[in-house]
Amino acid sequence: MDGIKETHDNIRIEGSYDSVIKAMDLLEEAGIQITIITTLSKTNFKELRKIKEIIQDRKINWQLQIGLPFGNFDPKLTLTLEEFYASAMFIVAEGLYNKFNDMPVVGAHCYGYYSHLLPNNKNWKGCTAGINTIGITSDGSIVGCLSMGNNTFIEGNVRNRSFSDIWNDPNSFAYNRQFTREHLGENCVNCFFGETCKGGCNSTSYHITQTFHNTPYCFKQIEENLFEAKKYRKEIKWLKQKGAKIL
Known about the structure:
By secondary structure, this protein is an alpha/beta fold. The chain is built from nine helices and eight strands. The protein starts with a helix and ends in a 6-residue tail after the last helix.
């Protein structure tokens, strides 16, 4: 569910919002636990609370993820770092009660990492693509993560080779399985948590910076940059008060 009816149908296809509602009705009637996913962009970022109002009485799980510039996604609609951080604060602040268990609004693997301020964000151990998760495309191709783009980073195809052979091949998923600190990009190379975090979500990293292990969508980095900017503004203000000419 990517927004209220008009927004969702504009993003997906006309009539798809009603299909989502019908699917939730049927799943609820059958007593099957439901998780919906919202892909965030500038188009629907401000509708988070409206989406919550639509689903909150259904007592279902809700996962947020960010739209990334590949496939049909317009790069101009990618969230800014500030919008991304605001959506993380929404996740922290809001919770949905689930009749099967208590489940808050959650962020996908693109949310992180090692925040100074936001709770429950210290357990990220790096991208799971090819480590303990995989994606299988409709044509049988094996990829580490479907969010990397289904026609990219294909390790093999189950129509031609067994899944076991693909998974156990020492050369499969090399971008992740053979990670060392030297693979960290400029955004992450000097980070204390670099070896543990491995540069965050590889899909986000690749589609934003064209390299792995280098995501700028990092709570720790965003917070530190914001604090530094605030400190810098205070210093500029103090210098101006002292009569200094700032170029």
